Amino acid sequence: MSDSRNRGNERFYSPPAVRRHQRNLTMQREQREQRERELMIMRQQQQQQYLQQQQQYLHQQQQQQLQQTTMMRMQFDEEQRQKRLIHQQRAQLREQQVAARRETQVQSAPAEADDSRSEVAESTLSGNSSTIQTNIDRLVETVTPRVPARYLPQPRRNGQEVPEANMVRVYYLNDLWESFREWSAYGAGVELTLSRKDKVTQYYVPSLSIIQLYVDPANARKPGIDSISQRMSRISMASSPSTGESSQSSRKLIFEYQEHELPHQRQPLFDKISALATGFADLKKYRSCDLLPSSWMSVAWYPIYRIPTGPSLKNLEASFLTFHHLSTPPTSVKSIIVGASGSSKMALPVFGLASYKLSSPILPLQDSEQRLAESLFESARDWIERHHVYHPDFNFFLRNGRCPESNPGQSKKA
């Protein structure tokens, strides 16, 4: 047997070249495994680096958002503080003006009629009629919006012009929202008598609670461009709601809004209307004659501050809802309210009222006030039931004290 097959009693002898080849293969395999291990370690390091960078980025974003939120909160608090300061300064100025007027009138009055004339002066300074005596009367009178009256041209009858005394007056919704601008910024001041002796001015800020606008689908066009005949037919229909709305098909709901936010999170009415008008511009363009008698709105009034603010006077928590019709029937110019500047105004009286904590030990209601409050509440409830309206604020007031506390039985019954 040759040496290549049997050398040194080694049955399978490998030549040196074969051994070198095997060593090279082993070294290559080990190097390949080493590179794979290094690549794996590198990938793991890259992943860890990427995760760290992502965490740092998220942390930076959170810090920036926190700083922005803090700055926005500080700006909001500063704006609120400035608004409160403006409210207080304006209220103090009003109180000083009222005190100055009262002192001037008292000094100019004869000595034998000081008492009677001081009462007349107080009524005059409050901006109300001398017939308004109770808190409810002053409240309802104060929060009644007054808007500029506009006149519609009427067609001729038998070739003759319609007398001026029979002209039809309407208003634009934009003028109505403008009437709430100052109240939304500073509040509406209501003079109240506490404990039947202390006189204060409580300021209320209005917010939109609910609004529904209905039009006749047969005459529904762009607001403000209807023909005279269509205007007159619509107005004549508004004057007889029993026939104009006998069927659901004779009316079309073109806009509706219900507020569901908590009172302290709501925008004032003027600001809310401006926001809603961005999505429904006609909210400011419609006229009262474009709307059917079923068009209405409810305004929520919440207290903000009071004058005077002495420590001996307890806080007033009374808040209330007012209900207002938005359409207008034909009315002659003889019933127009003429202001001091000669401009005519239209009043949108309160036809319904719901209250929360209106009656209390420091704000007792007289018998006449209780009857008036109950009558206005029943009118509001009848309206809601007749039109099948879901009114969140009204339901809350109904559950939590819409009636005077002195009449709990009737409240439970409701």
TrEMBL record:
Comp. bias regions, Polar residues: 121-130
Superkingdom, taxonomy of origin: Eukaryota
Region (Disordered): 1-34, 94-130
Composition skew (Basic and acidic residues), residue ranges: 1-10
Listed Pfam families: DUF789
Record PANTHER family: DUF789 DOMAIN-CONTAINING PROTEIN, T15D22.8
Protein's name in the database: Uncharacterized protein
Organism: Kalanchoe fedtschenkoi (Lavender scallops)
